[in-house]
Specification:
The structure holds two protein chains of two kinds.
Chain A (H helix, E strand, L loop, with lengths): L1 E5 H12 L3 E4 L7 H6 L7 E3 L3 H13 L4 E6 H6 L1 H10 L5 E7 L13 H7 L3 E2 L4 H18 L3 E6 H4 L1 E6 L17 H4 L3 H22 L5 E4 L2 E8 L3 H8 L3 E6 L1 E3 L3 H10 L2 E5 L5 H8 L18 H10 L33 H10 L3 E2 L24 H11 L7 E5 H7 L1 H9 L5 E6 L28 H7 L4 E6 L3 H12 L5 E6 L6 H4 L26 E7 L6 E5 L9 H5 L8 H9 L1
Parallel strand pairs in A: 2-3, 2-4, 4-5, 5-7, 6-7, 10-11, 10-13, 14-15, 15-16, 16-18, 17-18
Antiparallel strand pairs in A: 1-8, 6-12, 9-11, 19-20
Chain B lengths: L3 E9 L4 H14 L3 E6 L9 E9 L12 E6 L2 H7 L3 E10 L6 H4 L8 H11 L3 E4 L1 H7 L6 H15 L9 H11 L5 H14 L4
Parallel strand pairs in B: 1-4, 4-5, 5-6
Antiparallel strand pairs in B: 1-3, 2-3
Helix pairs in contact in B: 1-7, 5-6, 6-8
Classes of the chains: A alpha/beta, B alpha/beta.
């Protein structure tokens, strides 16, 4: 039976067919839907871990205990999990262990576009790269087989175009996991990586990679597609599809296993063609390895090292390099549009983060931000995020800036899920090293940016079970913070008042602003659009400064100042009342007030 | 049946662009094509521009379509149509929802939303086959502005039928089957009406 699946849905299906017993992940685009979809299968276990390192440790534990396990994350998540990935590469395991890294070439939703195939080489771990949804499913199964055959974790490296593209997949049967409960291995030489044991493991994993490389020469997922003698192409992952589109005549060696490489296969194709090129997105990963074999080839001298490839980029690069005639160029229409207004993502109408950023913007504080919806506080007119690098960076960066003598007081802004992810150690550091920074935890009761995933603060698990709520305020107090305020409801005045008090302190303080994401199903039921009383509005523009997409400029001008009055789009407004809170002329009635009026 | 048809869908986060491309890729599969779809979400869920490619063909390799190779544009918002016009091949079909969603850059001043004359002139420079449909108004008249995407799909189905582009197997029933499978049960009838109204909007029952 064939079914249209996204790459992420196909990976989930592959996990189910492979009989995965434990799956753990932290959400991150473009990887999030892998576990979300896997959790929909009957009788499986899948969990959100607070961060990617924990997810890998959980999967390692399960694989040590003799059951197939998988951890999934976006590319930068593997940086967080690198320590665990590297020891697992040293120890090996008792049952299959697969780490999925979903890379994001072109940085559609990321801070960088690192090429995580490098981790395979760094860790001495095999790397599989699917080219469509069918292969994404098949390679999950292949990855578990490789893992168990060679006693190694396997990296399944996908990219946004694999994760979020749909193509047809032939569904297969499930391999039921073993019901046998083996005793946990007591094998310190293999599983306790003290130096004396680690020293003995290192040569073993070097040999392991030689064994995998030997197997790779006849591995079904490495496929030679013979063609013209004029041009030979080495490629992997999504790039294979662009190669087939642009060079239908060429000889192609498709590397499903992109690490370690099948040297003999590569030598054979190199010897059989006049010109050998490598088409790969991002880094010259295959190209450099082939050059080290002493085989001449071209890659990044022809194709870009930045961004995504697509058929046009590959074709244009090939024409430039003389690989294709100019007649192959696809004409692009010339359209005179001038510069068009951009449409950046914005904080949604009703976003509970808006009042905090309005206050920060008004007080003109330097704000060290973090990863989440609230990063969008950087946009005009709020302009209230001044650094953002990675998950959990805000508090440490604010502390460092304060230490360096930054003349203003620094505010760190971090979301609830990001705080659980990696905000706790830097907060402990700020306390321990007596930092006068103010930390604001924006608790919207969910993991927002990736599309509403549960986290330790929400009281629900990925499988929809009720669970203990890890409360933020006791946690923050336990870190040693003496000045903690939890505001239930995000309101401009109370945020401003508490923040101003905390700015007078010379000790660390934490303000927790609790207000659920307005897009949560329960919150949507409460939406009531507000209205502007046109006779009261004088077009002062203060409500425009909160940056709400629901507040428009009216065609009606204020008589005295000739300024456009404000107008609220009832289709977008949720009734969060932040505009009403900042309006100096009471031109936007509060819900309670307007309800009362309508009762009269 | 053509060798291949490349679609580009463009809209604003929240307009149902992704649902529409999900429908389109599955209609292709039902019609006997190989079909692939590529989208980017993430930040786009927060009111940003959303684009998605759908390809039908005897063989489809790349899920992405190179600039200049788009055969059919389905745009849910006029500015977003304008933004991607240079990806169309000359003479492509452009089906555009007559809807304006002002981006924040326009609302807060600084940027200006392009005039209708400018949009029409730019379309005409690329293709004589630009069709504007009042998807939002039609959806509102049916009682729910959110089905504008299905109104547009109805119009698209009629245009493809008129051009005989996708072969005779591709009937309105195929589209309706795929749509019905993807919307909540209580909204099936509304979506049927929206699809039908879209077909009638471009002069086909």
């Amino acid at each position: 039976m064939k079914k249209m699946l996204s790459g992420n849905e196909a990976i989930a299906r592959g996990m189910w067919e492979a009989g995965v017993v434990v799956a753990s992940a932290y959400p991150g685009t473009p990887s999030t839907e892998i576990l979300e979809n896997y959790a929909l299968f009957p009788n499986v276990y899948a969990e959100w871990a607070p961060n990617e390192k924990v997810a890998v440790d959980v999967a390692v534990g399960a694989a040590y205990a003799g059951q197939r396990a998988l951890a999934a994350m976006k590319h930068v998540g593997l940086n967080v999990a690198a320590d665990s990935f590297m020891y697992a590469a040293m120890t090996g395991l008792e049952a299959g262990l697969v780490i999925v890294s979903a890379d994001d070439p072109a940085m559609h939703s990321s801070q960088n576009e690192q090429d995580n195939r490098a981790f395979a080489k760094l860790g001495r771990v095999p790397c599989l790269e699917p080219s469509d949804s069918q292969e994404a499913k098949d390679m999950v199964i292949a990855a578990f087989e490789l893992s168990e055959r060679f006693d190694t974790p396997v990296l399944l490296r996908v990219t946004t175009r694999i994760c979020h593209s749909m193509s047809a997949v032939e569904l297969g049967e499930r391999r039921e996991p073993s019901t046998e409960r083996k005793p946990f291995p007591r094998n310190p030489a293999k599983y306790v990586m003290v130096p004396g044991n680690a020293v003995k493991r290192h040569p073993l994993i070097e040999q392991r990679m030689k064994d995998v490389a030997a197997m790779a020469e006849t591995y079904a997922l490495n496929r030679l597609e013979p063609g013209s003698r004029a041009l030979g192409i080495l490629t992997s992952g999504i790039s294979y599809q662009y190669v087939k589109e642009v060079f239908p005549e060429a000889s192609v060696l498709k590397l499903g296993l992109s690490w370690p490489l099948p040297e003999k296969m590569i030598r054979d194709i190199a010897a059989s063609v006049e010109r050998l090129i490598v088409v790969e997105e991002l880094d010259p990963f295959i190209e450099e390895a082939v050059r080290l074999m002493g085989i001449p080839c071209e890659g990044k001298s022809i194709f870009p090292i930045t961004g995504e490839l697509d058929p046009r980029v590959v074709r244009e690069s090939a024409i430039q390099a003389g690989l294709l005639p100019k007649s192959k160029r696809v004409p692009q229409p010339e359209v005179e549009t001038g510069s068009l207004p951009s449409r950046p993502p914005v904080l949604c109408p009703g976003c509970p983060h808006r009042p905090t950023f309005y206050v920060l913007s008004k007080l003109k504080m330097p704000v060290n931000g973090d990863i989440g919806c609230y990063t969008l506080g950087l946009l005009p007119p709020l302009n209230a995020i001044h650094t953002c690098g990675c998950m959990g960076a805000s508090i440490g960066v604010a502390h460092g800036a304060a230490l360096a003598g930054s003349p203003e007081r620094h505010v760190a802004v971090i979301g609830d899920s990001t705080f659980f992810h990696s905000g706790i150690p830097p907060l402990i550091n700020a306390v321990y090293n007596k930092s006068p920074i103010v930390t604001i935890i924006l608790d919207n009761r969910i993991t927002g940016m990736t599309g509403h995933q549960q986290n330790p603060g929400t009281g629900h698990t990925l499988l929809g079970k009720e669970s203990t709520i890890v409360e933020l305020e006791p946690l923050v107090r336990a870190c040693g913070v003496k000045h903690v305020t939890t505001l239930l409801g995000a309101e401009v005045d109370s945020i401003e008042k508490t923040l101003k008090e905390y700015l007078k302190l010379d000790e660390p303080s934490v303000l927790i602003v609790v207000e659920p994401c307005v897009l949560l199903p329960e919150e949507r039921k409460k939406w009531v659009p507000l209205e502007v009383l046109a006779d009261k509005c004088n077009g002062c523009t203060i409500c425009f400064r909160i940056g709400c997409p629901a507040i428009l400029k009216s065609d009606e001008l204020d008589e005295k100042y000739q300024r456009p009055k404000a107008l609220i789009d009832p289709a977008l407004c949720t009734g969060c009342e932040v505009c009403a809170q900042v309006c100096p002329r009471d031109a936007i009635p509060f819900r309670v007030a307007s309800d009362a009026t309508s009762d009269v | 049946m053509r060798d291949s048809i490349n679609f580009l869908l463009a809209g604003v986060g929240g307009q149902g662009t992704i649902l529409a491309s999900d429908v389109l890729v599955n209609v292709g599969l039902e019609a006997g094509y190989q079909a692939k779809q590529a989208e980017v979400h993430g930040m786009s869920q927060r009111g940003g521009s959303v684009t998605s490619f759908v390809r039908w063909g005897k063989t489809v390799h790349s899920p992405l379509v190179g600039a200049g190779e788009v055969d059919v544009l389905l745009a849910f918002e006029k500015l977003e149509a304008l933004r991607v016009l240079n990806q169309l091949r000359a003479g492509a079909v452009a089906l555009i929802n007559n809807q304006v969603i002002e981006p924040l850059t326009v609302i807060t001043g600084g940027a200006e939303y392009p005039s209708d004359e400018k949009i029409k002139a730019a379309c005409a420079a690329v293709t004589p086959r630009a069709v504007f449909v009042d998807g939002e108004a039609i959806a509102k008249s049916l009682g729910n502005p959110r089905v504008a995407n299905v109104v547009l799909l109805g119009a698209l189905s009629a245009l493809l039928e008129r051009d005989q582009a996708a072969g005779p197997e591709l009937t309105a029933e195929v589209w309706l089957k795929v749509i019905t499978e993807r919307v909540p049960k209580k909204h099936v009838e509304l979506n049927r009406q929206a699809f039908q109204a879209g077909r009638e909007a471009v002069g086909r029952k």
